[in-house]
Design goal:
Structural class: alpha+beta
Radius of gyration: 28 Å
Number of strands: 27
CATH architecture of the domain at 2-174: 2-Layer Sandwich
Largest sheet: 8 strands, antiparallel
CATH topology of the domain at 2-174: Nucleotidyltransferase, domain 5
Strand content: 15-25%
Distance between the termini: 60 Å
Number of helices: 21
Shape: globular
């Protein structure tokens, strides 16, 4: 049986399906138009297919294909079939979330769903992936969806579809591990996880475990929810939480005095009257006359509280382990699951003993699998404990829903981590950053015993476990943008320092200007000046950037003469690959007028710089690019970040050696 990747294209006068067999690479083209009628061949082909891999195929391609199979039996004319398939396609496009056929006639594997691209925050198109995967062609079709295509345009459509097939195939190769993981979890739990995203897999594993220990059916548990009309924070906050500093005690008292009616709005956009007791001790940055984020400042360190966890960073800078100092991350092991277990926190509608037993069982299974090198089981249970247990507790669509359970973990977890950081501060151990489940410190070696005592006392108080990670070097812009080198040589990148998206599977992120984080790494770790690294860099893909605009926005390139008279304006794709150049053109984003206005709004894409479009790569274009690259633009972007970090570091404390200059 064949395993294929496929793509369907539809216009008013053509149905096109192109497939590529995964094992052999053989290509198949099926067309229904005035030129060809491959209906019978397609139906025969489908009977030889074990499963079909696509991109958003469960909500589009297969829905159209399923209708095709149904219509085939009715023996209607080809022209009428194309019309009906076209209408089906438009129906799928018009719906925000088209239906998914739960019993497809041919098994489907959807890379779009597997990667959770149906989530707004991760939404990613195939064109974006083509850019991220460095494909030669990221062109889009210039034809409107309702156009009647000519034979020549149909040939162009086939070429376009071929490119999408290749993109889908390449993305499939990058998702083989994820697909195999789902196959293994499906067998292990006797449930089809083929097109489940990670969090959804974790939620189902957790559901099965709760059902096992409660004796209730999964169906019954799935219906359970706890709704709250009011929540007394004094009932939520642990009695054993206390602080030494005035600032954090005021925050603690403020929390305990609160009665909340929903989880939304507890950490940002807070009424100034509500936070009045905190204002002398926090960053009073406002947004629309409200406190932007809940925060408190202790000894110059700002703690930011939020549903995503506690965050803090001392300042931009560079820290290096020396014979006198250590850089250590105190990391809480499986923080939120163990916090719930040790404090017997649970959604009200799930028995506490059942819930705690479920967490402990899953955690034990995970540790056992980790010792045995069973990475898939470790990953699956981690999704259940970390992704679903807390992540779904504030979702009304989940059986985990209980706002008070969510706030119990969220608030207590942050307060306890703040307590750990506070103990370090008052004992003269510098806190570099706090990030969700860990505190990173620069610890003088003569105070290591103090740090160990602080950690021991905190573990005894919380009944949680702290692990130590050691670093040779930390370069920090802020809590979300840093580079850290472990003592074993492994490097952790975040934010502006991160260029390892591909290896981490973060294909939804923006792969633009990867030359910048690579140059930062070269500077801070290898001591190579940005100008030298960038001008000698061989991989031209790392200089590419891309635009991403919605359908209401237009992107144009404009060419002017020496008198600044417009010579030419050309419409570009909304997703356009380009590089900053010395002899290019002005890229301008044109947006609709604001309400009550008549004039379009215009914004220059790279203000003060020229750009050159590169949606299709040829050797001739690459040769031109290498002669025309605006190196200065990229160098200055790197220097801006370096200067921001180094401005906070005395020159005698710089922790790297410059090899040369240019």
């Amino acid at each position: 049986m064949r395993k294929i990747v496929y793509d369907v294209e539809l216009y008013k006068n053509i149905f096109l399906l192109i497939a590529k067999e995964i094992d052999t690479g053989e290509r198949f083209v099926f067309e229904i138009s005035r030129r060809k009628d491959n209906r019978r061949e397609l139906l025969i082909f489908l009977k030889t297919v074990e499963y079909m891999v696509g991109f958003n195929n469960c909500r589009f391609d297969y829905n159209v294909l399923h209708l095709f199979i149904s219509l085939f039996k009715r023996k209607i004319p080809g022209k009428r079939m194309v019309e009906l398939l076209y209408l089906k396609g438009q129906e799928c496009i018009s719906k925000e979330r088209p239906n998914i056929n739960k019993k497809p006639l041919v098994k489907q594997k959807d890379l779009f769903l597997i990667n959770h691209y149906d989530n707004y925050n991760k939404s990613t198109s195939l064109k974006i992936l083509e850019f991220n995967m460095q494909m030669d062609d990221v062109a889009v079709l210039p034809y409107k969806f309702d156009k009647i295509l000519t034979d020549e345009e149909i040939e162009h459509l086939v070429i376009y579809c071929d490119n999408d097939i290749e993109a889908t195939y390449q993305f499939y190769l990058k998702n083989i591990k994820a697909i195999n993981f789902r196959d293994k979890m499906s067998k292990l739990y006797n449930y089809d996880f083929s097109n489940y995203n990670d969090v959804k897999i974790g939620e189902r594993i957790l559901l099965k475990a709760v059902a096992k220990y409660s004796g209730e059916s999964e169906y019954a548990i799935q219906k359970l929810r706890t709704y709250r009309t009011a929540m007394n924070m004094s009932d939520i906050i642990f009695d054993y939480i206390s602080f030494d500093t005035k600032e954090l005690n005021i925050l603690l008292d403020w929390w305990k005095d609160k009665v909340i009616f929903e989880t939304k709005g507890q950490f940002n956009k807070l009424d100034m009257d509500d936070v009045a007791p905190l204002l002398p001790y926090c960053n009073n940055e406002t947004e629309k006359s409200k406190l932007k984020n809940l925060n408190i400042i202790v000894d110059g360190l700002q703690f930011d509280f939020g549903t995503g966890g506690l965050h803090a960073a001392c300042y931009p800078g560079v820290w290096k382990a020396t014979e006198n100092t250590e850089i250590i991350l105190l990391d809480v092991s499986s923080y939120y699951p163990n916090l719930a277990s040790k404090n017997r926190l649970h959604p009200k509608h799930i028995d506490v003993d059942v819930f705690v037993k479920t967490i402990d069982m899953l955690y034990g299974q995970r540790m056992k699998a980790k010792d045995e090198g069973d990475d898939e089981t470790v990953a699956g249970i981690k999704l259940a404990l970390n992704g679903a247990l807390y992540g779904k507790s504030n979702s009304e669509y989940s059986f985990m829903y209980d706002p008070q359970f969510m706030m119990s973990i969220c608030v207590n977890g942050q307060l306890l981590l703040a307590k750990l950081a506070e103990k370090c501060i008052i004992n003269g151990i510098k806190v570099i950053q706090v990030n969700t489940d860990g505190v990173m410190v620069e610890c003088p070696r003569n105070k290591r015993h103090l740090l160990d005592e602080i950690a021991k006392e905190w573990m005894e108080l919380t009944n949680l476990k702290l692990d130590y990670d050691h670093f040779n070097l930390v370069v920090q812009k802020d809590v979300n943008n840093y580079l850290a080198v472990f003592t074993n040589g492994k490097i952790k990148y975040k934010g502006v320092f991160d260029y390892d998206y591909a290896n981490n599977g973060d294909w939804h992120k923006n792969f633009s200007s990867l030359i910048i984080p690579k140059a930062l790494k070269a500077y801070f770790i290898d001591g190579i000046r940005p100008a030298r690294f960038i001008t000698e860099h061989a991989d031209f893909y790392d200089f590419f950037k891309r635009t991403k605009f919605d359908k209401r926005t237009r992107l144009v390139q404009r060419e002017f003469d020496k008198d600044n008279t417009l010579l030419q304006q050309t419409l570009l794709q909304n997703i356009t690959r380009y590089y900053v150049s010395r002899k290019g053109k002005n890229f301008v984003k044109i947006m609709p007028p604001l309400k009550g206005k008549e004039e379009d709004r215009e914004f220059v894409v790279e203000s003060g710089h020229l750009c050159t479009e590169m949606n299709s790569i040829t050797q001739e274009k690459v040769d031109t690019m290498l002669e025309d690259l605006g190196y200065g633009y990229y160098i200055n972007k790197v220097l801006e970040i370096i200067h921001l970090i180094e401005d906070y570091v005395p020159i005698e404390e710089l922790t790297f050696e410059i090899i040369d200059d240019i």
